[in-house]
Design goal:
The protein has helices spanning 2-5, 10-23, 28-35, 41-53, 62-71, 77-89, 95-99, 107-120. The protein is mainly α and 121 residues long.
Length: 121
């Protein structure tokens, strides 16, 4: 699937994300998290949707944690909210990380930061 995830056509990338979300092959978590930084909103949305559906089956490994942390810097608030939600669900974040996002300009991101902080208490 890797060549499809970086294809020039956003529809191909979104299709690859959907296929990964349905089949959950090894390495699915980091691959999906990496697509949170895609230039195309539809691809980011597909990756966010898959990540929100899969936390129970994704291993909380350091590679996934690093990719989710990188997604916290993406301008798209859906991406930042999804990254916080996944970090919380997979127990890959900490109170300091979540607290940094309490001042995010987007209310949904702040809500996820509060929820994540509540689980660290």
């Amino acid at each position: 699937m890797r060549p499809y995830l970086t294809d020039a056509d956003p529809a191909v990338r979104a299709g690859a994300v959907a296929a990964i979300g349905e089949t959950v092959p090894a390495g699915a978590g980091p691959a999906l998290a990496a697509r949170l930084g895609d230039a195309e909103r539809a691809v980011r949305a597909a990756a966010a949707g898959s990540l929100r559906e899969l936390p129970e089956v994704l291993p909380g490994d350091p590679e996934l944690g690093a990719a989710l942390r990188a997604a916290l810097a993406v301008a798209d608030p859906v991406v930042r909210a999804t990254a916080l939600e996944a970090l919380r669900a997979l127990r890959l974040g900490d109170g300091g990380l979540y607290a940094e996002h309490l001042a995010d300009p987007d209310p949904e991101v702040r809500v996820h930061a509060v929820r994540a902080l509540a689980t660290t208490v």
